[in-house]
Amino acid sequence: MYDVIIVGARCAGAPAAMLLAKHGHRVLVVDRASFPSDTVSTHYIHQAGLGRLQEWGLLDEVVAAGTPAIRLMNYRHGDIALTGFADPIEGIDAVYCPRRTVLDEILVNAARRVGAEVVEQFTVTDLVFGESGEVLGIRGREGDGPVRELRARLVIGADGAHSQVAKRVSAELYNVRPAAGFIYYSYFAGIDDWGLHHRTGKNHSWFGSWPTNDGLTMVATICSRDQLKDFRQDPETAFQAVIDDVAPAMGTQFRDAARRAEPLRPMRYPDNYYRRAHGPGWALVGDAGYHKDPITGWGITDAFLHAELLADKAHEGLSGERAMADALDEYSKVRDEMSAGVYDFTTLMAEMELPPFFDAVLSAIGTSQHWTTKMLGLIAGGVEDHEIFSPDALERIYEDAGVPEAQRIYDPS
Q1: What is the residue range of 390's domain?
Q2: Alpha helices in 97-233 (DSSP H)
């Protein structure tokens, strides 16, 4: 009998297992993959997420794996340009974009080191339910072995957007917003000088680049869903065409110098959503419980933040400090509150067309290095919304940029 069984051992499941094991609980975490192994990902970890790795003693391992530090962000949306970097957050003055073959193995090994039991290549086939519908455990098999039944006081689904745990408990979706785009990405040599770019063009297309492990640069494109059929006909040509359209000079350099190291990977992600976060005997974390468009790269960071929150609240329930249902109610409430701003901003940016309010504000911000640093700090998770979007802050932004009174917009609606 385990205290907790966690289904999924990547960016949400492994930290939750590690933290619960540190609290002294008997934890089993299972995953159908073996490690190290790859998975589709933005790779990007914001400073707010790196702060959690630092607190857990794992950031040095990410750096030691040869993950390059990034200290300059080039953000463009049409004619708006924000170039710079956020102020340090928890002393962290860089961002890192590790390959998932690197990051996930570090996380899984960290869970093992503190006593969590990790079983790889384990496929969950069902949950075990009690007479009143509460979850009592899981059923599944390791590799080609026999089906086993494993029981726990709490089962956590950290098994991604297509979560089997969420499906089995019929966790309801809410605040659903349709996905706007799709991604193709790969890894390239020959463009070491590019650094980090986040560029949106005028034809509902985007591309980004960021250095990662093995001396490679990850380059990704996003286009609107209505372009998917045409893109699939010739992905390599379409991929190049997006870069040519958004940044012609970079497109020329890419054509001449970039050498693709791996096949292009498509990512047709699901709609943006929240799922009910818990019920009798179960809880959800990571993409299993909350998913948004990858354009802002907040998936890994949110997985870390929510895994830590869930581990703290589940510990309160397991230790008898409070009723488990009350503890998980608080987890759900805080998760939704702390992610609301990122969710709104991400789904807005995913449309790749700024409403007049954001166009006016970001255009003004781009004229000032002070305000650019503030905005990049908000994106990084270290600046509160009100520091930019309160009426007083907006007034100062427009004043500093010399925006005429008639062109100032204060109401996002």
Answers
A1: 356-407
A2: 100-113, 164-168, 228-233
Within this chain, do residues 382 and 240 fall inside the same structural domain, yes or no? no
121 and 234 housed in the same domain: no
Q: Is 68 part of any domain?
A: no
**In this structure, are 162 and 215 located in the same domain?**
no
CA atoms within 13 A on the CB side of 98: 27
- Does residue 122 sit in helix, strand or coil? strand
Chosen domain end from 303, 320, 346:
346
Quote the number of domains for the chain: 3
Cβ pair 208, 197 in contact under 8 A: yes
Q: Does an H or E element contain 22, and which?
A: helix 13-22
pTM listed for this prediction: 0.96
Angle between helices 47-55 and 299-318 (to 10 degrees): 40
Residues 158 and 11 in one domain: yes
pLDDT by residue for the chain (413 residues), tens only, comes to: 999 999 999 999 999 999 999 999 999 999 999 999 999 999 999 999 999 999 999 999 999 999 999 999 999 999 999 999 999 999 999 999 999 999 999 999 999 999 999 999 999 999 999 999 999 999 999 999 999 999 999 999 999 999 999 999 999 999 999 999 999 999 999 999 999 999 999 888 999 999 999 999 999 999 999 999 999 999 999 999 999 999 999 999 999 999 999 999 999 899 999 999 999 999 999 999 999 999 999 999 999 999 999 999 999 999 999 999 999 999 999 999 999 999 999 999 999 999 999 999 999 999 999 999 999 999 999 999 999 999 999 999 999 999 999 999 998 88
Q: Are residues 103 and 157 in the same domain?
A: yes
